[in-house]
Amino acid sequence: DAGVIQSPRHEVTEMGQEVTLRCKPISGHDYLFWYRQTMMRGLELLIYFNNNVPIDDSGMPEDRFSAKMPNASFSTLKIQPSEPRDSAVYFCASSFLGGGYGYTFGSGTRLTVV
Amino acid sequence: KNEVEQSPQNLTAQEGEFITINCSYSVGISALHWLQQHPGGGIVSLFMLSSGKKKHGRLIATINIQEKHSSLHITASHPRDSAVYICAVYHNTDKLIFGTGTRLQVFP
C-alpha cells in the first residue's frame, strides 16, 4: 500500500490566492483527518470525516477554510483567500474503526503564503 | 493546563543510552498513541495502546490507566532515533489530543 498520499508536497502562494490541498487515504480506511502543524501551536485537528461525512469541523480556523470528501478515496482542503498566517504544514491522516487502528499520516504539504 | 503533558521537552543523549519519555494526561481515554516525527516532517505512529506494554524492536511503550501515565523507552539509542516524539490520546471521541512533543537528539 502506498500509504496516505498528499499533494502537493510544497506550495508557495501569494496572499489572497486560493490554495487547494489534496489527500488520498489508505484504501479501506473509514476515517480521514486534516491537521495543521505550526511551531507555535503544534499539531491541531482542523476537521475529520467518517465514511465521507464531516463529523467535527470545530478546528477549522474560519470561513476561509473548507474541506470536502466527495468519495472514499479523495479529500480536499481549500483556503480562500489565503493569508500569511496560514503558512504551516498541513497533514492528512486516515484510520479505520475510529479507535485509531492503522492510523497513518501523509507526508504533509508545506504551505507558504507570502 | 494542557490535557496531555510530556516531559522532558528536550532531551539529549549519547549513543547507546537508555531513554525514557513520559506522558501524563488528565482526561479519561480509550487509547494512546506514540508518534515519531523526523526532521523534514513525516509523522509515524509507533504504538497505539490502551493497557499494559508493547514492544517493537528497541522501542517499548507502557501505559498505566489508573495513574494516567505512559512512557516510551528507547534501548541502545542511536543517532537515527533523533526526532520529536509526540504522545496523543483519544478522549471519548475519534479525535486525538496531542502533547507538545519531546525533541530527542542522540549524539554519536
Give an account of the 3D structure.
- The complex is a heterodimer of chains A (114) and B (108).
- Chain A has 114 residues and is mainly beta.
- Chain A is 0% helix and 58% strand.
- In chain A, strands 2, 4, 5, 6, 9, 10 and 11 form a 7-stranded mixed sheet that branches. A 4-stranded antiparallel sheet of chain A has the order 1-3-8-7, with no helix packed on it.
- In chain B, the strands form 2 sheets. In chain B, strands 2, 4, 5, 9, 10 and 11 form a 6-stranded mixed sheet that branches. A 5-stranded antiparallel sheet of chain B has the order 1-3-8-7-6, with no helix packed on it.
- Chain B contains no helices and 11 strands.
- Classes of the chains: A mainly beta (114), B mainly beta (108).
Features:
heterodimer; A: mainly beta; 58% strand; B: mainly beta; six-stranded mixed beta sheet; five-stranded antiparallel beta sheet; 11 strands; 0% helix
Principal-axes geometry of chain B comes out as: globular
Radius of gyration of chain B: 13 Å
End-to-end distance of chain A? 36 Å
Number of helices of chain B: 0
**Structural class by secondary-structure content of chain A:** mainly beta
- Helical amount among residues of chain A, as a percent range? under 10%
Q: What value does the Rg of chain A take, in angstroms?
A: 13 Å
Number of separate strands of chain B: 11
Short note summarizing the structure:
The complex is a heterodimer of chains A (114) and B (108). Chain A is an all-beta fold and 114 residues long.
Task: Walk me through the topology.
The complex is a heterodimer of chains A (114) and B (108).
Chain A: E1 5-7, E2 10-13, E3 19-24, E4 31-38, E5 42-50, E6 53-56, E7 65-71, E8 74-79, E9 88-96, E10 101-105, E11 109-113
Parallel strand pairs in A: 2-11
Antiparallel strand pairs in A: 1-3, 3-8, 4-5, 4-9, 5-6, 7-8, 9-10, 9-11
Chain B: E1 4-7, E2 10-14, E3 19-25, E4 31-37, E5 43-49, E6 52-56, E7 59-64, E8 69-74, E9 83-90, E10 96-98, E11 102-107
Parallel strand pairs in B: 2-11
Antiparallel strand pairs in B: 1-3, 3-8, 4-5, 4-9, 6-7, 7-8, 9-10, 9-11
